[in-house]
Amino acid sequence: MTDTTTIDRPAAGTTCVAALYHFATFPRYETFRAPLQAVCDENGIKGTLLIAREGINGTVAGTDEAIARLLAFLRAQPEFAKLEHKESRASKMPFLRMKVRLKKEIVTMGVEDIDPNKIVGTYVDPKDWNALISDPETIVIDTRNDYETAIGIFKGAVDPKTKTFREFPDWVKNNTGLHNKPKIAMYCTGGIRCEKATAFMKEQGFDDVYHLKGGILKYLEEVPAEESLWEGACFVFDERVSVEHGLKEGNHRLCHACRNPITAEEVNSPYYEEGVSCSHCYDTRTEADRERYRQRQHQIALAKQRGQKHIGG
């Protein structure tokens, strides 16, 4: 049955959402997992934090006081003393649980010995970004994946249409046209992927490489909509799905069958069934797949009726 309701979300909320990352030499990351999980649990914080030998990355949510305590704890660690973060608001808690995960990389590129602490592109503040990407001598590259770029991108940017960040190095190597202009400007959601991507580009022999400091999130926070060169919404990895200028919650849902963001118009598509299918995935799933998704969605609905959260949803 198709859901024909429109998506109506509040512009602001009481929950603080903090996106953070920091590249650092962090050999003790394995022993840091338990105390970090404990601080988050004690303060009612939910979300995901990835820690690895190369640093920390993640997005978490909680009360303002809880997030402040977590950030103070992180910055008290010598490796993360200069950690920066970006805050936005959510109308409700956008995560179901708290996970601290040990990883080989805090953002997975799959290329050995890429270290933004040793070599990296030039940071560009949001206020200076428009001038750089409007320069005809600049190639602008979106380092995000295809499901993210589908709902928003900077005007004139090149979209690599990658499925994962692991595909980015090969995309660069196969696009000799990137050498046609002297400047390369790169961006991503919060800054981490483009920071690692610029390190890779420098290793590949590109000299004038730049990246947007704080990513799209910082740009949408600081640059007025009337001056913006951003087109669309910015995908975020939590239940809000997207944010817009001023970091207000966007007007997208997530298809829980294929994980693609969908618009209000796509919700009204005959291919959309909540938790089961959408116009992006209907033709790539079997009826057996959809029946399995329906059973999952039924369990989610039952849990909701009981006032519980279905973790598998």
TrEMBL record:
GO function term, MF aspect, one = oxidoreductase activity, acting on paired donors, with incorporation or reduction of molecular oxygen
Q: What class of enzyme is it?
A: oxidoreductase
Location of the Rhodanese domain = 134-228
Question: What is one Pfam family matched by this protein?
Answer: UPF0176_N
- Catalysed reactions listed for this entry: uridine(34) in tRNA + AH2 + O2 = 5-hydroxyuridine(34) in tRNA + A + H2O
Gene Ontology annotations of biological process type: tRNA modification
Protein task: Catalyzes oxygen-dependent 5-hydroxyuridine (ho5U) modification at position 34 in tRNAs.
Please give the PANTHER family that the UniProt record associates with this protein.
Answer: RHODANESE-LIKE DOMAIN-CONTAINING PROTEIN 7-RELATED (PTHR43268:SF3), THIOSULFATE SULFURTRANSFERASE/RHODANESE-LIKE DOMAIN-CONTAINING PROTEIN 2 (PTHR43268)
Family in the record: Belongs to the TrhO family.
Its name, as the record gives it, is tRNA uridine(34) hydroxylase
What is the name of the gene encoding this protein?
trhO
